[in-house]
Amino acid sequence: MDGERHAAVCAAARKVFETGILAGGSSFAPGLDAWTLPAARELLHRFVENYDGSSDEFLVKLKRQISAASDGALVLAAELLYLNLLPLNAGTVGPERKSEIIGTVLSWTSRETAVPADLAEAASNASIKGGQAFLNYRWAQFAFLIRVTVRLLELPAPERERLLDDPWAFRDLAREALTDHDGKYRARSQLHVLLFLLFPDAYEPIASERHKHLIRDAFADRLAETGGPTGDVDRDLAAVRARLERESGGPVGFYAEPWRSVWHPPEKSRPQRGWLVRGANVQGVNVIPRWLEEGFCSVAWAEAGEIPAGASREEIGSIVDRTYPDAVNESRYAHVLQLSRFLTEMQPGDLVATVDGDTVYVGKITGEAFYDDEDGRDLARRRPVDWNTARPLNRRRLSEAAQARLRDRRTVGDLTRVMAELATEADMPGEVGHEVKAVDETQPLAIPEITKTLADDLLMPLDWLRETAGLLAAKRQLILYGPPGTGKTFLATRLAEALAGPERTDLIQFHPSYGYEDFVEGFRPRPGANGTIGFELVPGPFKRAVEAAEAEPGKPFVLVIDEINRADLAKVFGELYFLLEYRDREIGLQYSPHEKFKLPGNVFVIGTMNTVDRSVALVDAAMRRRFAFRALAPDRPPVDGLLRRWLEREKLPETPALLLEEVNRRLSDPDRAIGPSYLMTRRAATRRGLERVWATEILPLLEDQLYGKVGDVEEQYGLAALLDAPGIGLPREPS
């Protein structure tokens, strides 16, 4: 099919070019001598020699340059633009746009002129992918075609005829016309396409010089019988194609299989990502309408000039250092990070969004980064984008998570975790890869319901457990507080594992020397080269839990902090106090101010607080506001009667429960009451075991709590004293 389309396109191009170069006539306006040396030189003077470097669109500048030219020059300009646009497929320039460009130029003439139907039909069925050069260097391609035309028309008619019969001599002449006004060669793609249009038997339908070399090198073994590559890539490709056609017994297309995968093997797939690129205020100008119309996005950093696509951070850093020598470290890092994202980390197939007021536009990146300063350096650093302008979004109607990510003020931000929502709302769900879906933090969080089985296992009321889990789900942070032995840590761990599973539950313990560097992140010494010691920024358990949660946003992760009140909480949490309350916001951390940090909604924190060490009343207001508090007191549900229920289930004597009730009655202080977990052991079912537990665990605790308040703790709270209470007796020794 491509062969037939190529043949029709080449025939149309040859007709226009030969009619003009050999006869001087116009294919659009029969009877008009458009392809004359005076007309060509007029275009050369008006367009090429008077280069317009403004940021206006191509047609705007073109009108300013040539609209006052003679009819002959204008029709010649239209026919040269036809040759420029003719071979390009709809993905590069659509038929309507081709017609609009050529029709606009013809409208500047004093006569009614239009593209003949057969030539228009050929242009609508073209199949060459021109790439970004044809979208962004049209002025250079047009200038090249003008220069080629002038050079040909300056030759005698027999010489022109000879050149149109000799593909290699024609190429030599055309190459001489490549140099732009500033000495660069921006029209090489146009040269390759023109050669194919006029000499399809000698040249390939390939616009990229790089592709030509890749193909020649991949099939170099087919040139062995002729002595190997000659250094002339076009001649080598002609020989390769001839050899492959003999082998296959049919036509060969290097962009079709099985040939394409030989020279262009599939690249290793990289997970799809989503990006935010800002363009509403580029040096005071909103360039987003331009992006949407022309199909690209861009970043400025105009002073840095051209930086190769795919450059490493080190290479970009060197350029930033030279360009912005006075930038502080944080500013320098921001420049490097955002340029690296745009030039290297972004890949074709990634999704991108931009924000214009409250309107959000979503698109798909379709090509590599490139540099074109035709429209000024503020728009020079570009990536092609297929924007979906038919379905813009209202940012205020998006999820809180998406709105939070869109608040990122940086020029280039990471939107991967909310891009699934944006693309779906923009009617682009088919463009969302499974990698983006997997990390979608806007997806509903699946929190399991507390089961009766768990309640029976814990010997606790089901309603109390479900209410506690509901508080945690709503607040995201919960503290279980109470005196020693009330099972705070045990309950916190079992509750966490029931909601998140053991593999998504972590437990740490605070202590007086615990700090921010231990909990969040901090610099730690690490062995360096030659026996030296260096420092490395190491994430703490909190940041590691966040990283794990971000990988599975649809599942809860729980961090259990035992003895949370034993550390200086303001010192340990630092700026995280803010994030505990505002989960939809991002901030910079102390040691990573250049990177935005967000606390995902699927991270939960359960702390345990021993009220003997510190009363809840002494907890600062900031902490109390961010956590829900649940008391575990021996004399109140769900702990009240827990020991008795456990003894009944284990079929053990009730003596430990009677002792616990009596000692707590005598203490008469809920914050110093003894919890049941000390006695929830089979050791306490015997006299010796009970004596050992009381003497080594409970009595030392009471002596510490009552120091200076009770003269003889053992006399009042010792096991012997308690056993004298009515109705209590020691359990019997097993027979």
TrEMBL record:
InterPro entries according to UniProt: AAA+_ATPase, ATPase_dyneun-rel_AAA, Methyl-DNA_Rec/Restrict_Enz, P-loop_NTPase
Residue ranges occupied by any AAA+ ATPase domain in the UniProt entry: 474-638
Gene3D superfamilies xref list: P-loop containing nucleotide triphosphate hydrolases
Alphabetized PANTHER family for the sequence: 5-METHYLCYTOSINE-SPECIFIC RESTRICTION ENZYME B, TYPE IV METHYL-DIRECTED RESTRICTION ENZYME ECOKMCRB SUBUNIT
Protein name: McrB family protein
UniProt source species: Planomonospora corallina
